[in-house]
Amino acid sequence: MANSIEEIREQLPGLSQRLFSKPNVIATGIGYKKVQGKKTGNLCIICSVITKVTAASLRENELIPKTISGIPTDILPTGAIHALASPKDRFRPSPGGVSIGHINITAGTLGCLVKKGNKLYILSNNHVLANSNKAVRGDIILQPGPHDGGTLSNDQIAKLSDFIPVRFEDEAGGCFITKAITGTFNFFARLTGSDTRLYQVNKGSKGNLVDCAIAEPFNKDDVINEILTIGSITGASEGVLDMKVKKSGRTTGHTEGIIDQVDATVRVNFGAGRTALFTDQLIAGPMSQGGDSGSVVLNNHDEIVGLLFAGSTNTTIINRIQNVFSELDLTLA
Q: What's the rounded Cα separation, in Å, for the pair 287 and 315?
């Protein structure tokens, strides 16, 4: 039986594929098994399910085994996991933790300030700043977000600069013709100076690592390099199992939690029938609600460990900050 996180981590990708074939399973990750609601010291694979059902209502092959390849499992009912978004006030200068959003969304959270090269940017989620792939670079970002009363006439704070496209499971697979059309369109877009780009999304492709985007402030004086109720970020660190974490978000404000799972694979519902699979995620308990998407997650030393982007009534899903910085080539401001 596996007795270390390294042994379970090595087997987890293959085992996750098997577990995701079971009804209701929406996330798998490494955590400590609970018995009668109390955490034990035994590592296991935690299977998050939309709702817990009786064994009698399932076929034999639909049951989550008590162990898989010698590794114990545990079942955690979470409800559906949704990308988070919602709202509040106007701040100038704007710190991390306040309402922000693309002109065509409701509202999410301004994460923190970052740098790409020598330029300063605002960091948040793709679904907050880039409208879940629907935006065009240069689109206007409002603070507060539109749902909080942000308007084009009064509340423009930045323009969308870059984002990592989310690969949705329900979008059509790619083919040679699609690649050719996409490549031709993007070639002429570059020639004409257009920021518009097409992205080919392949069904069945590997999961996403991040839901992230950056926006360039129109005026550097309109933003401040600190997090509301927390203060300055002191550096970056890796999120690990049992780490105490905190965040400041637009809806629930300052909340704290514990990383209960690492190396998690999670299926996230983005609405309108679209779902996306994310891998190498951190999962904490109920420390967020809709509108907290884009919040940065910090440890007790005020070091950034992740970017919050999704959750349910009792879980919070977090991108590893190392993956966010790597994908967008960022550093802390």
A: 7
What residues does 109 pair with on adjacent strands? 99
**What backbone torsions phi and psi does residue 206 show, to the nearest 5 degrees?**
-60, 160
Residues of the chain with CATH 2.40.10.10: 79-169+204-333
Which CATH fold topology does 79-169+204-333 show?
Answer: Thrombin, subunit H (2.40.10)
pLDDT in tens, 131-141: 999 999 999 99
Residues 315, 319, 320: CA angle, nearest 5 degrees: 120
Please state, in angstroms and rounded to a whole number, the distance separating the CA atoms of residues 109 and 229. 14
Enumerate residues 6+ apart whose C-beta is below 8 A from 220.
Answer: 120
Q: Which residue has the tokens 């919602």?
A: 86
- Inter-residue contact 300 to 231 (CB < 8 Å): no
Question: What is the rounded distance in angstroms from the CA atom of residue 261 to the CA atom of residue 5?
Answer: 11
Task: Give the H or E element holding residue 34.
Answer: strand 25-35
Q: Could you tell me which CATH number the domain at 5-77 has? A: 3.30.300
Mind listing the pLDDT tens digit for each residue in 215-273? 999 999 999 999 998 989 999 999 999 999 999 999 999 999 999 999 999 999 999 88
Overall pTM > 0.85: no
CB 257 within 8 A of CB 245: yes
Instruction: Please state, in angstroms and rounded to a whole number, the distance separating the CA atoms of residues 197 and 50.
Output: 35
Exposure string of 285-294, with b = 16+ CB inside 10 Å and e = fewer, is bebbbbbbbb
- The Cα–Cα gap between 295 and 318 comes to 9
